[in-house]
Amino acid sequence: MTKDKSHYENLLKYLESHESVAAKPKPPEIKKKEKDQKEHSENTREQVRKLTKEMVKETEAFSFVPAHVKKKYPTEGFNVRLFEEKLIKKLIEKHKKLQSYERPYMSVTEVINCLRACYYHRKKYSIDLKKKYNYPYLYLKRKVGDTVHETIQDIYNFDEVEKTIISEKFHVKGRPDAISEDIFVIDFKPTENFREDVDPNHYEQGNIYSTILNTEYGYSIQKVVIVYYLSNFKNMQVFSNKVDMERGLEFLKRGKLLKDHLDNSILIDPIGASEKECQYCPYIGYCQKDGYKEVAPPKTKDKVTKEPKKQIEKPAPKKPKKKKKRFEYGDPSDSFLL
User: Fold this and answer.
1) Fewer beta carbons within 10 angstroms: which end of the chain, N or C?
2) Of 287, 263, 270, which Cα lies nearest the Cα of 105?
3) What's the pLDDT at 304?
4) What are the counts of helices (DSSP H) followed by strands (DSSP E) for the chain?
């Protein structure tokens, strides 16, 4: 019994000695080391969070989320959202590339649109590219349009195609799709449905080409021909309109006016603007601050004085219902790399 008691006491002493060691406070240098390790770990996490936030911010211009993503379509084998992001990147790259060019001449599409928007664009006012390029398939539509033009030009027997013309007098540059029989200027345009009449802007564009060719190149262009091809490629429409050189010269004067304002850094009035364009214009904030209300744009675009006569080669047997068309704003100067 005495022996067992002795063993029991020794065991208690052993346990007490180890408990005292365990309860013994840590030396200051160990505490400091552990604190430094903890702070380093927290700093590392904070850096990771910061870097992640910066990366997200850099790529947010391409973070378009289309409607079908909400429907959770399968992406195995082909990631649709990734593809759309790449399309948007292509559009933004093209925008930046265009901004890098030196363009001494105004484009034909610039002089028929809002001159103030062209001024902001040429002066490289910053805009929200994510908002401007929120429709990724615009890049595909442009590529398809280029291919359609090339195919028609290869097959049809035109006298000249993609002829670059320059008005030195008015500092305007353009490129009609085709010239035929020395009397027709021809442009090809896409359309979703059969049209009742020609788009005034499309006529103005061809009429300006014709005016430059007649006054500065010795041509005798008599008709502006707009060929609309349906986006489903089932049919085409042809509209023919007489050349109005007086009207063309009035638009050409805008080119010289815009160039003078750009050269002297004087803000130009919103000549040629429309309410619809103003509503979707990416420069609307600048315009409002710069006296938008003082120089109000016209409510509607000028109408063609002489209504074009419609010539439909194959009229549709039944007119399809018109779908509500999505308006997409594009800088007028995007059409030409001048």
Assistant:
1) N
2) 263
3) 46
4) 12, 9
In terms of Cα–Cα distance, which of 285, 295, 108, 309 is closest to 212?
108
Report CA-CA distances (Å) from 198 to 226, 241, 252, 289.
7, 9, 21, 35
Dist CA 185 CA 294 (whole Å): 39
Give residue limits of the domains in the chain: 37-103, 105-319
Phi and psi angles of residue 323, each rounded to the nearest 5 degrees, phi first: -90, 155
What type of residue sits at position 325? K
Distance of alpha carbon 67 from alpha carbon 261, whole angstroms: 42
- For the beta sheet containing 184-191, the strands, ordered from the edge strand earlier in sequence to the opposite edge, are 160-161, 178-180, 184-191, 223-230, 236-242, 309-311
Considering the chain, what is the average pLDDT of its residues?
A: 78
Distance CA 314, CA 192 (A): 16
Instruction: Give the Cβ contact number of residue 198 at 10 Å.
Output: 24
Pick 105-319's CATH classification: 3.90.320.10, 3.30.230.10, 2.40.160.20, 3.40.190.10: 3.90.320.10
192-239 pLDDT per residue, tens: 999 999 999 999 999 999 999 999 999 999 999 999 999 889 999 999
Q: What is the DSSP string of 236-304?
A: EEEEEEE--HHHHHHHHHHHHHHHHHHHTT-PPP-TT--HHHHHH-TTHHHHHHTTTTTTPPPSSPPPP
Contact 234, 315 (CB under 8 A): no
> How many residues are present in the chain?
338
Mean per-residue pLDDT, 139-144? 91
> Do strands 172-174 and 178-180 pair parallel, antiparallel, or not at all (unpaired)?
unpaired
Measuring CA to CA, which residue among 323, 131, 333, 331 is closest to residue 231? 323
**Is the confidence at residue 34, as pLDDT, over 90?**
no
